[in-house]
Structure formats: C-alpha cells, structure tokens
Structure prediction request, 182 residues.
Amino acid sequence: MTGKHNQPHKAHRLARIGFALATAAMLVAPASSAVAESKLAPAKAAEAAPAPAAVIATPAATAPVAAIPQTLEQDVQEFEAIKGGTASFYGRELRGNRTASGERFNPDDLTAAHPSLPFGTMLRVTNPRNGDSVMVRVNDRGPFHSNRVIDLSEAAAKEIGIARMGSGKVELAVLSDGTSDE
Prediction:
C-alpha cells in the first residue's frame, strides 16, 4: 500500500537505519584502518623494530568550553496536568480512515483522540503502573465511552505498555506553549 501517510514512517525508519550504519562504521573504522596499515607495512620492518613496552600519552591541550546559559528555561518543557483516567487504543482496522481533524489515521503514529482538546495539542500520557510516558498529538475526537478519557494510537499504547491489556489507567499532561495569562 502506498500513499503519503506511509512516507514519513518509512523516512523515519530509514533515518534510524542510516544512523545505526554510520555509528557502526565509526566504531569499526579505527580497527579496520589499523588492520589495513599492518597489512601494508613490510614484514621485515615489523620484525626489526622492537615493540614498545608501553605507550604514555601526553595530556592534550584543553579547549575552552562554551558558556552555558544562565537560564535553561528555554530547553525545559513545561506540562500542565489535566484529568487522567482510563485510556484505550484503536489500531490497524481503522488505518487510512479520516480522523476528525481530516488527516488519515495511521496506527504507527503517536496520536490520540480526545473529546475536547484542540487538534494539534501535544499531550504527555503516562502509565502510572510502570512510569512509562509518551508524547502524542491530538488529531481526532473520542473516546465515545463514558469511562474513558483518551483513545491512543496502537504505537502510543505499545510505548506505555497498555496495548496487551487493551486499556489502562493513565495520567495526562498538556505541553504548555510557554506563554502565561499573567
């Protein structure tokens, strides 16, 4: 199945694979270059020169460290707790259907349905049983059950460990935009 809703997921996966390959190449490069140099060096020269007993490194000159900003508030995300409760998830059977925001549902995206929060709101959903949290974006309306506070995508439910049970208690917190009404 092809389509625009699949491309970001594939691109994200390819980026992770590329990062893993680059990391592996960096780890292997020093070892492989040492092996290559020993193969290129003449055998007689290696036999004639005695091996050093120990190599003592001289301390390198330290470069000045960049100044750390006095306030780290710009990098800290602030959350405002809202009413938690029972979360459920909806999965593969709804793939490709339109959400209330108009986008197509992808169970592999970290999204959620909430009855009243504006579309695009970022929520931190925490499973209090194991402490796992996930950031989700509200893109749909629901759940339409009186005992549930949020519907998560399958990927989000797996991240916090409620996918196997089908539902679970969660704590919700809205990512604040950094502005205040004061």
